[in-house]
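Each letter names a residue; C-alpha cells follow underneath. Both lines appear below:
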Amino acid sequence: MNRETLVAALSVTFVSFFVMACSSGVKGHTYAGPGGMVQIEFQSDGKAFASLGGMSSSCTYTQSGNKVTLICEGDTEQLTLGSDGALAGPPDGMLARLTKVK
C-alpha cells in the first residue's frame, strides 16, 4: 500500500468516526412527517411514542448506526437516519420521510 492510499484510508476512517461521534441518533428527539400528522418521540430508554392524528401508541426502538428499528403494537418498521438528519422509511409508507422537530 502506498502512502497516498494509506492517507486516504485513514482520512475516510477518521471522518466516519467523527460523524458517528457527533451524531446522537434519534434518542431524545422528536420526528414528524409533513403536516405533523405522523409524529414519533424517541425517549432515552429505548421507548418511543408514535402518534397518527389523534391516536397515540407506545413503542420500543433500537438503533444500530444509522438504522432504527421501531416496534409499535407488534408491527416493525425499519427506518434509516440520513446524513441530513431526517428519518426515512419505506417510500410508499406513512413513515416515508420524518424530519427532526426537537
